[in-house]
C-alpha cells in the first residue's frame, strides 16, 4: 500500500477486492446501460444484491460515457455506489483520455454533492475496455490530486485487483507526488 497526503486528504493505492471495502462509496466501472456486466461491475452487482441494484439502475435509465450516476450500496458495506462509465479503448485518438478523466471528475463531483468523504475507485477502463494501464494510471492519479485540492475528501483509494496493477498505480502516484 502506498499513501500520499495532500492537505487533509490521504490518497492510497491498495490491492483488494473493492466489494469488501468499508467506505462511504465505491465506484463501479459500469457501461452505458447500467444493467451490469462482467469484471468489477458483475462483482459489485452480485455483492450489492442483483435485484435491488438492477431496479435502482433501471430507474436511472443509463449513463453516457464519461459521466457517473449514484445509487445506494444495498448489501455492500459501502453506503453508496457511484457508477462511472469509462471509455472503451480504440487507438487513443478518439477522446479516450478526456473521457476517462471525465469519468473520474463526474464521480468526484457526485460524491462531493452527497457528502461522501471516503471513496474507492477500481482501475476504470483497464480491464474489458482495454485502456493501457500506465496511461490510465496517470489520468486517475491526476484526477485524484485535483479532487484532494477541493478539501471535500478525507480518503481517496485507488483499489487495484492485482499487485501488478497496484505497482503501476503506485508508480504514477509517487511520480506525481514528487512534482
Ligand atoms: N475489485 C477491484 N477491482 C476489480 C474487481 C474487484 N472485485 N474485479 C475486477 N477488477 P473491468 P472496464 C479490476 O473489466 O475495463 C463490464 O462488463 C480489473 O482487474 O471490470 O472499465 C462493464 O459492464 C481491472 O483492473 O472494467 C463494462 O461493460 C478493473 O477492475 C466493462 O466491463 C476494470 O476492469 C467495463 O470495462
N/C terminus separation: 20 Å
Query: How would you write the strand order of the largest sheet?
Result: 1-2-7-6-3-5-4
Strand content: 15-25%
Query: In DSSP terms, counting alpha (H) and pi (I) runs of 4 or more, how many helices?
Result: 5
Major sheet details: 7 strands, mixed
Q: Spell out the helices and strands N to C.
A: EEEHHEEHEHEH
Extended strand count: 7
What ligands can be seen in this structure?
A: ligand AR6
Estimate the mean pLDDT confidence: 97
Point out poorly predicted stretches.
none
Alpha carbon gyration radius: 15 Å
Quick one: overall form? globular
Query: Which class do the helix and strand fractions yield?
Result: alpha/beta
- What share of the residues lie within helices? 25-40%
